[in-house]
Amino acid sequence: MSNERFYKHPALPFAECRYSANSGRHYKPHMHKTFSVGAIDHGEVIYQVGGQTVRLEPGSLALINPEILHSCNPTESSKRSYYMLYLNVDWCSQLQQSLWQLETFSPVNSILLEDRSIYQQFINTMESFMEEDEVMEKEQILVDLAKIIFLKVCKPATIKKVHSLRIEELKLLLSKNLDADTPMKQMAVKLQTNPYTLIRNRKSR
User: Fold this and answer.
1) pTM score of the predicted model
2) What is the pLDDT of residues 126-176, one digit of tens each?
3) CA of 186: how far to CAs of 92, 173, 176, in Å?
4) Using CA atoms, how far apart are residues 204 and 114, in angstroms rounded to an integer?
5) Cα radius of gyration rounded to whole Å, the chain
């Protein structure tokens, strides 16, 4: 019997996760407003996007830019289990701006990412995101995942210079909110900086 589960945390409205188990459902070509990442953990599918067709199996990630016609269906009469992650484009753009000098979202240049390490990171991230972990932990693993994907398959011309931040102010802010599960965006507003530059600098210390 097929089983489908959706997960979205109210404090992290930019991300939605979906897991479908033992599904034989077929989909017509369709589009999403989000940047979408998918992975099979059982079975295989025929993945079609932008006129390209590939076979997607465990170990690879399907990457779908916003507003691109695509479909992903099981081979013959077989069933598959898979994760999908839908990320808001504005959030992706803000994260990319912490890496490069960009004005708008930079689309990925490949529909398929064949990297077992990143694939496993994606699976682990989806499993953790759908559990009852703290908001900041969920946000951090999403940032780490999206960043490594963008660094792998986006090729903007200009690299972002890393600016030193007021890390001591961040530490003070965190010390005053030890019991609060606060999204990084709220802290970034108080410190007047990009939240994902803030995360990167915090991790580097």
Assistant:
1) 0.78
2) 999 999 878 999 999 999 999 999 999 998 865 555 444 455 555 565 565
3) 17, 11, 14
4) 28
5) 18
Average pLDDT, the chain: 84
Tokens of 102: 């960009």
Contact 34, 86 (CB under 8 A): yes
Amino acid at residue number 4: E
Give strand pairing partners of 81: 42
Question: 51-55: long-range contacts (C-beta < 8 A, 24 or more apart)?
Answer: 52/111, 54/111, 54/112
CA angle 45, 49, 50 (to 5 degrees): 160
What is the DSSP secondary-structure string of the chain? Answer: --EEEEE--TT-TTEEEEEEEEE-----SB--SSEEEEEEEES-EEEEETTEEEEE-TTEEEEE-TT--EEEEESTT--EEEEEEEE-HHHHHHHHHTTB--SS----S-SEEE-HHHHHHHHHHHHHHTSS--HHHHHHHHHHHHHHHHHHH---SSBPPPPP--HHHHHHHHHTTTT----HHHHHHHHTS-HHHHHHHHHH-
List the one residue out of 127, 76, 87 whose CA is nearest residue 96: 87
Residue 204 CB burial class (10 angstroms; 0-12, 13-18, ≥19): exposed
